[in-house]
Amino acid sequence: MRQSFDEISAQLKGRHRKSARLKWMSMGALGLAGLFLVFFFTDMLIKGLPAFQQAQIQVQVDYNEMAQELPLAAVEEEMRPLVSRGYLRLIPGRMEKNPDLLGTTRMEWVLADGQVDQYLKGHHSNLSGSEQSVVDELADNGRAELKFNTTFFTRGDSKMPELAGIASAAMGTVMTLLVTLVVAFPIGVMTAVYLEEFAPDNRFTQIIEININNLAAIPSILFGLLGLAIFINFFGVPRSSPLVGGLTLALMTLPVIIISTRTALRSVPEDIRHAAFGVGCSRWQVVRDHVLPVSMPGIMTGSIIGLAQAMGETAPLIIVGMVAFIPDVSATVTEAATVLPAQIFTWAGEPDRAFTEKTAGGILVLLTILITLNATAVVLRKKFERRW
Amino acid sequence: MDMKVADRGVTMSGHETGQPVTRNEQANHELSIRVRDLNLWYGETQALKNINIDVFQKDITALIGPSGCGKSTFLRCLNRMNDLIPSVKLEGLIEMDGRNVNEVKMDEVALRRRVGMVFQKPNPFPKSIFENVAYAPRMHDLVSRKADQDELVEQALRDAGLWNEVKDKLHEPGTSLSGGQQQRLCIARAIAVQPDVILMDEPTSALDPISTATIEDLMDKLKQQFTIITVTHNMQQAARVADYTAFFHLGEIVEYNDTKTMFANPHTKKAEDYITGRYG
User: Could you give the CA distance from residue A166 to residue A345 in angstroms, rounded to a whole number?
Assistant: First the structure.
């Protein structure tokens, strides 16, 4: 039965309509996802960027004898509620260190109270009417300004929003991830090498494989319970420390590293193994000299992504006590510390509204680091991918 | 109905004719590999049946036969590459230097040091040309000083007929070479450890005719130093390069003969049919 082109075209109309509809639907889905992303980033940027600026005011500081005992005495009375108490506290110490200051009076830019900061940024503040007019006057005279907030990056947590920073959390994250990396990377890679290159394919290894895949899908809070039971209760690792946090996250990251390493090993062509066996390599030499070098970019990419995942994890760390108020930057892995997402979580729960922008600012920092890590993974893969 | 011919032990299975197929005695040739009653199974499937063959030193022995006849499987028995396949089960004797290569005490790494292999698809290591050749000798502690290593690499590349083409780019990746050059690099890699035997598994099947001719010339030179066993699908190639030819069919050696006789006057009907192109 022969059909003319017109007849065939007529039948095709419905099919073309269907595929066009599907195309528009998928483009719509993509658009919606993009819209959410844009909305999220815009919201975070609008809320978070002000956190990188902090109000400072210029006041006359009078280093008199009384100030040694009562720091408030160093500042004029009407300015007292406007200056950060955190700044005032430092005055006696500075005078002790530098005795020449005694008896002098200087105009200084000092950190303003969190409420002044909020008022200058146009947010709700608890300043009284008279205090507001003083701030207005200072601002008119150029004596109250929003300046870059170095405190946010150099100090730990504080109950005073103008003094709260992410330094201790950032340090805690670095140490925790180092512990995770040192524990999870070698164990994960060696496990994968054993399973992929050495282990016989029998019931036992199949069960191990299934369990590893299941581990990767376990809710992370359970790893926290495991960490609590094993590391804190059994081995007596100090609570809240980067050591216990890192070990717990290592448990969580292990399956990710094992799975990605196995994938990378499996993608190495059999030819290379045969060539190596053919010249008389032992199994270990085949792996060390030929298989691992070729699969390294894949292994590193998987591990970095696993670490990035661990970095954003909060739930298991709640259980091992790393969601805590840590004002000082800790120096060792056994001191109490907190991590970036836990810090964000803590700030999000603060009643003071000035912490809202700190929360968003912390999220921006965390996102920046995560994006950098993932970009590093991509760059590493591209750079070391061999063109064989 | 396998039969063994005395003393030099050349064995043949004349299934077609019922006659033992003999091979010309080569008084000046030393035995390299002696195979007796070799049977091999992949799981339940028997791939090699009662293989008996003697391979002589500094000869080229070609294994021919239709696809799936077991010739590559047999080749891989000789350096125990089949160990890598868990389902393989093997019985019988493969003797080299008075030792059964399959005995428990035999280290397969030591065996592969003396029995090199060139594969069907050129598979240089993803390393530099220099490293491809220098890697194995260094691993086996054949060279320690840098100068010795350079000399050995040059010698191996010269013997493989590749030196003039690559001497100016020794540190470029081995995979940057053409297919034929890559295969010669693989041969250089195999001969760099001075093995006794080189196994070649269809070494030219992925190459163009000119590269094939180069490799064939090379094989002819290499047999001064090495015993070569090659699998080939190319009948003319077997006729051109091989001193002896074994015809495999359905896992058995149907005929093993010197190449001239095999191609001019095969003793078995099956071999004749295959060689003249009736099947295969």
Answer: 12
| pLDDT for the residue A72 | 84
Q: Model ipTM?
A: 0.87
**Could you identify the residue written with the tokens 């450890």?**
B193
For chain A, percent of residues with pLDDT exceeding 90: 58
Please check whether residue B159 lies inside any domain of the structure: yes
Q: Which domains does chain A have, with CATH numbers?
A: 53-92+100-148 (no CATH), 167-384 (1.10.3720.10)
Which residue, A26, A143, A37, A7, is CA-closest to A83? A143
Could you give the maximum distance between any two Cα atoms of chain A, in Å?
A: 111
**3-state SS class at A162:** helix
State chain B's mean pLDDT as an integer.
Answer: 87
What pLDDT shows up at residue A331? 85
Does the pLDDT at position B85 exceed 70? yes
Residue closest to B80 by CA, chosen among B17, B33, B23, B29 = B33
Tally of structural domains, chain B: 1
- Whether residue B280 is contained in a domain is answered as no
- Which residue, among B249, B275, B234, has the nearest Cα to B74 in the 3D structure? B249
Q: Residue range A53-74: average pLDDT? A: 87
| E strands in chain A | 53-62, 105-111, 144-148
Q: What is the reported pTM?
A: 0.82
Q: Which of A278, A280, A386 sits opposite B126 (nearest CB)?
A: A386
Contact between A277 and B126 using a beta-carbon 8 Å cutoff: no
Instruction: List CB contacts (< 8 A) between B106 and chain A.
Output: none
Decide if B112 and A280 are in contact by the 8 Å CB cutoff. yes
The answer, for A386 touching chain B at a CB cutoff of 8 Å, is yes
Which chain B residues have a beta carbon less than 8 Å from that of A291? none
- Closest alpha carbon within chain B to A198: B84
Residue-level pLDDT at A77: 83
CATH code for position B38 = 3.40.50.300
- Give the pLDDT mean for A313-333: 89
* Closest by Cβ to A280, choosing from B84, B113, B186: B113
Q: Quote the pLDDT of residue A386.
A: 61
The answer to whether A74 and A89 have CB atoms below 8 angstroms apart is no
pLDDT cut 70: percent of chain A above it:
99
B216 within some domain: yes
Nearest to A278 among B110, B117, B175 (CB): B117
* Mean pLDDT to the nearest integer, B142-154: 90
Q: Say how many C-beta atoms besides its own lie within 10 A of residue A383's C-beta.
A: 8
Say if the Cβ atoms of B193 and A293 lie within 8 Å. no
Phi and psi angles of residue A146, each rounded to the nearest 5 degrees, phi first: -95, 120
Could you tell me the pLDDT band of residue A96, with boundaries at 50, 70 and 90? confident
Distance from CA of A152 to the nearest CA of B (A): 49
**What is the C-alpha to C-alpha distance for residues B71 and B253, in angstroms, rounded to an integer?**
9
Whether residues B109 and A290 touch (CB distance < 8 A) is answered with no
Residue B62's beta-bridge partner residues? B230, B245
Integer Cα distance of A262 and A299 in angstroms: 8
What residues in A contact B121, CB-CB < 8 Å? 271
Amino acid identity of residue B170, one-letter, is L
A263 Cβ under 8 Å from any chain B Cβ: no
